[in-house]
Structure formats: C-alpha cells, structure tokens
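Objective 1b. Sequence-to-structure analysis of Phosphomethylpyrimidine synthase.
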Amino acid sequence: MTILEKARAGEITAEMIYVAEKEGLAPELIRQGVATGEIVILKSARPNINPVAVGKGLFTKVSASVGMYEVDDTIAGEMAKIDQAIKAKADTLMDLSVRGPIDAMRETVLSTVDRPVGTLPLYQTLAMAQEKYGTALDMTADDMFAMMEKHAAEGVSFLALHCGTTMDVINRAKEEGRIDPLVSYGGSHLIGWMIHNHCENPFFTQYDRVLEICKKYDVVLSFADGMRPGCIADSLDGAQVHELVILGGLVKKARAAGVQVMVKGPGHVPLDQIQTTVQLQKQLCGGAPYFVFGCLPTDSGAGMDHVTGAIGGAIAAYYGADFLCYVTPAEHIGMPSAEDVYLGVMASRIAAHAGDVGKGHPAAIAWDLEMSHARRELNWGRQMELAIDTETATKVWKDRSTNFASECSMCGDFCAMKIVGKYLRDENQEVRNER
C-alpha cells in the first residue's frame, strides 16, 4: 500500500508521526490531510532523507533548484550551491541538471542531503536522446518512461512531469497570441518534440503508465505547467487555464490510483491576479498542494528578482499556496551563484513566513510575537536567534551598532524603545492614578 492508501485505511505511518512533530500537530491531523489529498508527504527509501509534509494547515515550504546547465558546470560547483541552500534552510531541493554526468550528480545529491529531492526526468531524457540518436527529437515515449522510473527507483521524492500539456492546450496558446509563448524549459522541449513528431503528449495519453510507476515507488507526482506565463500580460490566459482544467482531472485519477499529487504553478502574475490564480487551482484541483514559482508580480525586477519573487510569494502563500520555488537575483539574466542561491532561499523563507502569519498559523504568529518581546526588552541575543537569517542579522548588528548591550545604531541614545517604552510600562499605573 502507498502512504495515501494507508492514510485512507486509517493507518498512521512513521512518516506521518515524524512530520507531525515538525509541524507541531497531532499525527491524526496529518493522516486526515494525506487521506484527502490536501497534504502530501515527500519521502524517500534513502535512510538519510527525512520526510517533509506540504499542504493545508502546515508551514509553507521552500524549494531550491540547482543543477548542471552550462558546459563548464561541475558536480562540485552545484554541491556548493546546495550547501548554501541547506545553510539557508531550504525544505527541499530539485536537481534540474540538463548536461554533464547527470547520474553522478543525482547520486551525489541523494546520498548526501537530508531532505527530499525532486527531479524533472525529461531533462535527462533529452540529454540521453541527443547522445543516443544525435537529436532529442528522436527520443521515444519508452525513453521518457524508462528515465522516469530510473529516477523514482533511485529514491527521488517527487517527479515533475508535464502531464497536462496537450495538443489542444498548445493550439490554444497559439490562438491566444502570447507575448512570451513558452518559458518552461521542459515544457518547450516536450512541445517541440510533439509538434515535430505529430503526436500527443505520452505523459497524457499513457497516464496510467505514469501512475503505475509513481505507485510502485510511492513517489509524489508533481504536475509541471508547460503554459506557465512568462510575463504578467499572459497571466490567466486561456492556455494556462485550459492546462489547469486538465490537471484537475488528472489529480482525481492519481488519487483514485493511490498516488500523492501536487500541482506546480506560475510564474509571472500581477498582484491583482494572485488570489484568483491560487483559488482557481485549489478549486479545480481538489485542494491539491500548490507549488508556485514566485509568483513574480512584475516583469521588471531583473537582477533583484529574489525580491520580486518574495513579494508575490508572500501573497500567494497568504491566499493558500503551500510550497514556494525560490527565485534568485540571477533569474532571467544568468545562472545563479552559490551566494544567489542563499539569497533566493532566504527571500522565499521570509515570504513563506509572512504568508503563514497572514493565514493565522499559530506558531508563525508566536514566532513574531516573541521577536516583538525581544525588541521591547532590547534583548539583542534573542533577536538574533529569532531572525530568519540569523547570520546576516548578527553581522549587520555587530558591524553597525556601537553599544551591543542597549540601543541599536539607528537612534542611538534617542532609542524610542528605551525611552518611550520605559515610560509606558513603568509609569502607566502612576498616570492612571493621577487621572
């Protein structure tokens, strides 16, 4: 039985107990969420990888993507980025390598990290086909499924597949006259293969085969969106919504087969459409966990898109998104450095926490309240401990404050916390008595 089937049967598994403790919830609540499909548990047969739960009522999670992309990229270089992602406390990782020793890269990641790893098997299938046939256009459906099973068998926790990118959706996109037709790397290559070979998407026509593999290895199916909007002008167009409608039907089939499923979404979305985007996904996909890239509410943040993504991510999390794929400062202009990875994760973690506070998550609210008390008491050590980015906060404080024991450098001797706070706390009773 898969973990979804066990949850439906009323069984509380070891993974449910583990994530319940991390979330501060009763294991039965986790079981119920898994049974309805509103929670998924990312896990692995690898003993070094600890499970992570994603979904309704839980902390919003953050994922960091790495992988060999440029000709001179190395495993060591990508592992340095992973080290920074882990230092910044990313909840999960995605290895999206498209070239080089991809098998060795994945094995290195899976054997060394302690958190779930996701992949997009089509990337390696394209690289393999290029080497095997001389062109990726000659890859076969069997090649795609063989690679998918290979990744699942090796212990990957979630597999990203473009199951809802059909010829009807592609034609709809053509009719829409998009400004940026395709920005999904995997989606664009799959669509190019479909058009060249005059055939439908195998992940859609042979969806039962997808589910068989996911069920066999009890891996979470993560629906990738081939029609992710690449600019805010294309947000919520017919092609994007059409694909989402199809994914909603595929979610139901996956659950019926005992397979956990989540849905990945946009992308570039203006502020006024983020709520609609999230709620539409939740409605059409039966409350399946929503894994959003960004959201990016402006197209003009190049060089600072970790900030852009944090703005949209916080709003998306507030309205019900469950999982944020980080965005780095290098998004749109180059491959991220290790420092970019750290900044991207931190920005997304701040966004996730802000969303959790807005949603009323008790632990998130308690965290901020404790920080408020620490500030009131000028307890600098505790403030540094409570900061989401403790290292950066501590460095700035020590570099720029003149008196570590009292006020900060912003106001110095005129610290409002110290002067007015003392008056309000210590003399309130005296003031009331005088009245």
